[in-house]
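Researcher: I'm preparing a figure for a lab meeting and need a structural model of a single chain. I don't have an experimental structure, so a prediction will have to do for now. The sequence is pasted below. Please return the structure as C-alpha cells so I can convert it later.
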Amino acid sequence: MAKHKSLASVSTSVSPSKAAPQPPVSKKAGPPVAKAVTAVEMGAQQREISVSEFFTKNRHLLGFDNPRKALLTCVKEAVDNALDACEEAGILPEVTVQLEVMATGSSATLPVSQATRFRITVTDNGPGIVRQQIPKIFAKLLYGSKFHRLRMSRGQQGIGISAAGMYGQLTTGKPVKIISRTGSKAPAHYFEVQIDTKKNEPLVHESKQIEWDRPQGTQVTIEVEGRYQKGRASVDEYLEQTSIANPHVSLIYRTPEGETKQYPRSYHELPPSPKEIKPHPYGIEFGMLLKMLQDAKSQTLSSFLESDFCRVTPALADEMCKAAKVSPKAKPRDIRGAIAEALYHTIQATKIMAPPTNCLSPIGEKAILSGLYKQIKGEFYTAVSRPPSVYRGNPFIIEAGLAFGKAPDSATKPEKLAMPLAEGEQEEGDSELARVIRYANRVPLLYQQSACATFKAVLATTWRNYGITQSRGALPAGPMVIFVHIASVWVPFTSESKEAIAEYDEIHKDITLALRECGRRLGIFLRRRERAASEFRRRNIFELYIEEVVEACNRLKGGKLPTEKLKAQLQKIASLRTGGIKTDETLGKTGAGPEGLPHSIIVTAEGIEGEVPPTLDGSRAVAPAIKGPDKMQNEEKLPSSKPGGRLTARARHVKNASSKVAEVPSLPKKGSSAQQQAGTARRGRKAHQVRKKK
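Model: Understood. Here is the structure written out cell by cell.
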C-alpha cells in the first residue's frame, strides 16, 4: 500500500499538468529603455541659480583656481578696497598687510613652505564703513557703488572682497571678521559674516561694539587655504608693484616668516580725485538705448538726450532728432521699433565731442619716476603720459615708464678671465630678457601676461631701433623693466579675474606710441653714453704721450720750461678735443651728473640727473635738469655742434668765459684763421730744417 502511494506520488510529481514551471530559455538582454521625461517633470526640475552659487562652482573665474593664486587674490582685493576708500575720502593711505600661518585641526603649526592655511589681515586708515552697510559689502556678491558710475576706480564689479570671503568660507568654514570705525568719536563695530549662497544674502554671526586703538579705518580678516611662495606672481611682488604705481601710499607688510617690509611714501600728494561723468553716446549699444528710453525721467526726447548723455547740447539734440525724423518733443517711452533704431544710427553717425577726461586719475610722469626710482635699481629712468583717447565712448589714458641698466655700485664687478666658449654656448646674463609690469587703474596685473594687450604691444615694438637687442617675436634683451598703465572708467578685462586687457585697436595704438617715445629717449641715452666712452678712450691715449711731449719740450728749452703748467695745458687741450665736461658728465666723472632728458632720470656713481622727489631720509640729492648760467661759467669750452660749423649758444658762452686761459708758447694763438695756423706751422718746420742743416 505504501509502495503504491510512493509510486502515485512520484507520478504526480512528474505529471506535466502539475509540474513546476520551467525557466524560460535565456535570450540576449537588450539595453534598458529609459522612461521618457515629460515637459511637466522637466519644468519641476528648474530653479533659480543665485550668483553666489554660480561662482561657488566656478571660482576659477574669479582668480581662485590654485592655492597660490587664491592667497594673492584675497590680499589684492582687500588692499584695492582700502586704497579706493582712502583716496575717495581724500586721505593719504596707510595700509598694513599681515599674513599668518594657521594650524589645521589638532596638528601643530607647519613651516611656511608647507603651510596650507593662512590668516590675512588688512588694515587701513580710511573713512570707515557705516554699520548697516558692512554685512552687504563683505557678504553679498555684485553689491557696491562702483558698477554704475563712470568714474575711474580700482574695483568695478562689486565681487572682489565678498568673493574672497566666500572662498574662505568654502575652504576653511570661517567667517569674515570686520572692524570698522568712522571717526574718533564714533564706536568701533565688529562683525562676523558669511554668505548664504542660495540667496546671495549675508548671514551675520556676530555684531557688537568693541574697543579699537585706531581713530578711524577698517580692518578685514579672512582665513583661507593657500600656499605662500616668493618670486614672480606672489604676494611680495604684488605689494612691491603696488608701491611703484602708488608712491603716495605708505605700506607695511608682515610676512609669514615674521619679517616686516616697509614701503615708505615717496610722493606726498594724493592723485587728483576723478569726477563721475554720464555715458557718451558712442559708448552705448542699441539695447542699452532702448532701456534708457524706457527708464527716462525726462518729458521730451530732446531733454533726454541732453540730460542722460555727456557732450550733447540742446542744439545738437535737436539736430539729431531732426536727422532721425523724430519730433524733439516726443516722449522717450514712445520711441520704439524702427524709430528707435533710426535714432540710434543717427546718434552714431553724428559728430560728437569726445567725453571729458576729469573722470580719470593718471599716475603722472613724476610719480612714475619716483616709484621706479624707489623700487628698481638702474642707470636710466623715463616716463611718458599719453594724451587721453577714447574706445567705445570710454575715455582712457596710457602711461609708460622704463628703467634700464644696473645700479652703478652693482655694475662694477671684478672682470673674469676670458674663456673660450663652445659652439652655441653663451656668456652668463646674455639671455636676460626685459621684465614687463602691467597695471590697470593702478592695480598690478600678474597673471595671463601673454593674453594681455599690453604684453602684445611690447612684443610688437621694434626695440632694435633704439639700440636694444631683440629676437623676432620675443621681449627685448637686457637689464630693463617696462612699465605700462591704463587708466579708464571701464577697463576691458578679458575675464572676471581682471588679469589681462582686451585687444582694442585704440588701446594697442596708444600703448605702442608711448613705448616708442620711451625707446627714443633710451636710444638717445645709449648713443650719448657710447660716444662719451669713445671720447674718453681717446683722451686716455692722448694722456699716455703727454709726459713724453712735456719732457721733450723741456729739453728743447734747456730745462727752463715750467713742466707742470705745460702738462696741465696739454691735458686741458686733450679734454676739450674729446668732449670736455660733457663727456665727464655723461660718464659720471663729475659730481653734477649728466645733462637730463625730459621726464627722465640718469644715475651715475657721482650724481643723479632729473626730477626725483626727495625721499624721507633725504639721502638722494637731485641735480637740476637744466643747467643755469652760473654752472655754465665753470665749465670748459665745448666742441661745436658740427665739424667746422658754428658753436652752439652754450659753447660760445663757455668759450668767452674761458678765453683768458694761458696759451702754450709753441701753439698758435686763438682767434687766428685756419690758413694762418697752417702757415705758421709750415714756417716753423722750414726754420727747424734750416737750423738742422747748419
